[in-house]
User: Fold this.
Amino acid sequence: MVESELISRRTLLRAAVAAGAAAPLALKTPAMAAAPLPFVSDYQSNVTANTTAATNAAIRVLSGMERLWHTGTAWNTGTVLDAAVLRANMRYCVRVTSRRTPEQAARAYVQDRQHQSYAVIAGLGPLAGAYRTGALAVTGITGAPATTPPTTVSDTLPAGAPPGSALGAGSPTSALGQVVTLVNTVRGPWSSGNPSKAAYQYPRPWRMTLDSEVADTGRLDELGYPVYASPVSVVPQLLRQRSLNPADDGGFPSGHTNAFHLAALAFAYAIPSRFQELVTAAFDLSETRIVAGMHSPVDVIGGRILATALAAAILGDPANAALKAAAVAQAAAYFGPLTPVNGTDPYGDRAANRRIVEPKLTYGLPRRRAATPLTVPRGAEVLLETRLPYLSPDQRREVLRTTGLGAGHPLLDGPEHWGRLDLWAAADGYGSFDRDVVVSLDGEDTWRNDIGGRAGLVKTGAGTLTLTGANSYRGGTTLKAGTLAAGSPCAFGSGPLAVAGGTLRAGAGLHVRGSYQHSAGTLAVRAGARVEVSGDLTIGRDTTLTVEGRSGRAVIAARRVTGRFARVVVTPGHRADVTYTRSTVVVSLRRA
Assistant:
């Protein structure tokens, strides 16, 4: 098709869509008397027989794709609706595949052929070895051949595998059988991306040009495969693993990506101490689908959206409540007494993890102006149920809302906004206090996000909460019990600070950008630290100042200081000289 004909076809199609013409047959949604059910209430409609948005909830939540691509009557007759996005989509594929190294190609082959649930175990880091042993999880794909294999390759049990071993997450009858069953259930009969592939018929990148037109030359290569004049190349080791039937081989959504994220979220539910690392592993493994030349960014984003919705639906299904509880308890009992094996943790660097995840949330695809507030999908809060167990369901929804992605990305803006959830960021707590947050924590946790908002925080419970962000929330901070620790100088935002009990740990320094009322409890600072209070500091009678360290001075400076600490506690073997002025409290440490 020449360029002028292509432009004419696109123009006519856009005009038809604008005028209210019918959607493609596979996606056509007849008028309904009532709004569709929420995905979590309708997820079991995702079966092969249902390939319309009207009947299949999975196809429906992915229907942001309809703003990018008009499905044709055959696999090779679709039409681009958003040329900027889909051209950028293909350009990303060209850039990645043209620059991949042999090592990246080999890894892409392994992740293509290896069972996806097994691949995700790497996200357990120092627990991975113990998990594989306890779950009897094995793989037969541990490396890539040097050239194209003569036949198709599947993951099979390796020779010499321990009795009872199983592929993927492992054996349901193993010492970690409940965890295995949870992963298998999340990846169960309702979790396929194939109905959506059949509905959208968006070709794989190696079959398309930069303009997302099919690039069929009508020739066969030496392997007997059709030749496509595409700028995207497939990893050589995977050439015989490609499908010969493009009509049944759509690229959107990526099935491997769907599987990686489903497994990761199931593992993360059972082993929440590795929540962020497992989410990172899913993003990292999904990128190998693009490196392989098998998928494009929109395919991968679609797979992630589908998996997020499916994981929430299945984990939130009351039928799976007992299994969830058993898996969490089993994992805690199994890993609790174990000492993690020292070694390389592929996802042990938090900053590196964020660099993996952040660009892949949108893949930098063009964004349109939009100001649609994020509506957290019904049931999504279950995804944080074990990571933030001390928060209520409504609080977990608020965490998801305040850490979610902005509007303007067509795929992410699809029905229910599943694509706008940023689970990696949500694992670090609130992004904003838009209403006062009362948190009762008896364990230990750290909120690392930069928290804004007009409201404030009240900390209760016997546990320790650490705030490390560059926080700007304005509603103030109140400590009533337990420990509240400042991991940054502006940890407590820009409002007033009140300590009515418990221990406030100021660490190496703190800036209180309002008044500070310390009526009871303990202020703990380090020698050499400086606490700056923009307003007045009022010290009550039942108060303690603890200074940690062996030498140096701790200074508390305010506009005005009223009252004195009842007790000053320092490191054994040392004494403190405490000086009060109208605007400072100075503690100098020296040996006793």
Observations:
- The first helix runs from residue 3 to 18.
